[in-house]
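Ticket #4471: complex job returned nothing on first submit. Input attached below:
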Amino acid sequence: MEIQGEDDYFVKNTPPKNIEEVEKKTKEFLNFQIEKDRRVVLVTSGGTTVPLENQTVRFVDNFSAGTRGSASVEYFIEQGYAVIFLYRQHSLRPYSRHYSHSKNCFLDMLDIDNDNIIVNNKYNSFMKIILEKYKKAKAENLLLEIDFFTVKDYFFYLNKITKILSTIEEKAMYYLAAAVSDFFIPPERMVEHKIQSRAGGLNLSLDQVPKFLKPLVSEWAPKGLIVSFKLETDPDLLISKARQALDRYGHQIVIGNMLLTRKRVVHFITKDAERKIEMSDEELKNGMEIETKIISELKIKHDNWIEQSKN
Amino acid sequence: MEIQGEDDYFVKNTPPKNIEEVEKKTKEFLNFQIEKDRRVVLVTSGGTTVPLENQTVRFVDNFSAGTRGSASVEYFIEQGYAVIFLYRQHSLRPYSRHYSHSKNCFLDMLDIDNDNIIVNNKYNSFMKIILEKYKKAKAENLLLEIDFFTVKDYFFYLNKITKILSTIEEKAMYYLAAAVSDFFIPPERMVEHKIQSRAGGLNLSLDQVPKFLKPLVSEWAPKGLIVSFKLETDPDLLISKARQALDRYGHQIVIGNMLLTRKRVVHFITKDAERKIEMSDEELKNGMEIETKIISELKIKHDNWIEQSKN
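Support reply: We reran it on our side without changes. The output follows.
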């Protein structure tokens, strides 16, 4: 059962409680962007989880802090896009990512000045740049954020949002940077309570998750520009696996990256070409991020995609 | 193999790279507190992860945002303790927890006022209280924070820190709030590269992790006051599992809590007694946290523990 039918999955599993609210918000957001004649990109971000119990204490997770996705949002907005950001709960978010509580804790940047709390001079100028961008994105309604936790909820949201977004056809881009689980425990095999510690150890049997990129490309959003990601740890597999995904799902671009060098090198793999995008030591030292190059490149590809559709 | 020998585990597994640095910091911190004649508590917090590959893309995780641990630190400091906070990377930390990037994002609280960035009046008074406590904790060197990601690194740090802390004997408390994995994949069975998606699904076989609470109580820190936690989802199991842990490991207190009510009710289980600590709706509405009651109670128990040891 490599490709489980879409209907089957969405019937067998319970939708997230707020699915209708998400649907409503997405439609409102999209209508606003249509009026402004903006392009819209869906950015997915962070790892997805696979619960091992119904009352979940344990789960299988994917490594992802959400850096790629959250950084990319900022550059998409700079390029004139409106963004729907579908992100894993507690993973990094655009703008605030520069001040996560584990790094650059903002409390360290604050001084008490009589009755006021002010940002220390040392941090002031960088924060002002971030804050101005953030306030602009909010004021101009350029960003809609929706969070998920489990891979199941991710699929429900992805399905719903993609179908809504597909109404703007070529003007929508799908930038699927979330690290989606490959395996899950189907509902009928899930235990109710916390699995107890026991000397015998634990044997888990997980099924492959449905490959929803296939219906996304062919049915949910057939006219959009679709970009997926491939993360590997074995360099011998990267390009071949990326090309395989492109052949299998029939979308436009796979961005391949290695776990250890993902902030320095990515590969753009398209049907006819392969291109490496790289950061120099100098660029990295200056705090430049590879996502700025990725998004500039995609903007051009999207221009072409829209242009082609007119012929 | 329920209890794997301590030496065996710490020989078979590779220590975290910075273990010597952590050792040095802990000793310096402890020496400073000894001079100030302070009590010291080790607070562990957050979930631990079990990697499924050496070059880790996937892992098994435990549900824990680190709320219990990070909140408790603030109340311990209010009670005069110095705290070593051993926490899961990216989980909540004391003080900054009030402004995580996913809730109460601090960027929403800032205004640009000419060249300054200031905290909006609406948020000013609450933040001032937090900020003053935070600055005091730093200025008086009351808090040492050490982060981990995998259960293996957690065990190495726990072992090292506990042994150092045990030199102050009864004046040390161990408040083990981290949600420690019960199962892991031993190094000899770990695959190197990312497990590939495949139609056949995935079978995982995990061993039980060594129960280090046993040597911690009997060998690493035999004179300290040791508090462990028991989280369950099945109410019929909670008290019996907590009492079982107390019998098995021989320490002083188990705090039992249910997944769904953990912010409202906890049970203190000791050798001779059982006591429920509860929050009223009124208290919860006023933003009071159950950890303030837990820590007040533990402070009294610690007073008695130290007093008894003098006889």
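The radius of gyration of chain A is 21 Å. Closing as resolved unless it happens again.
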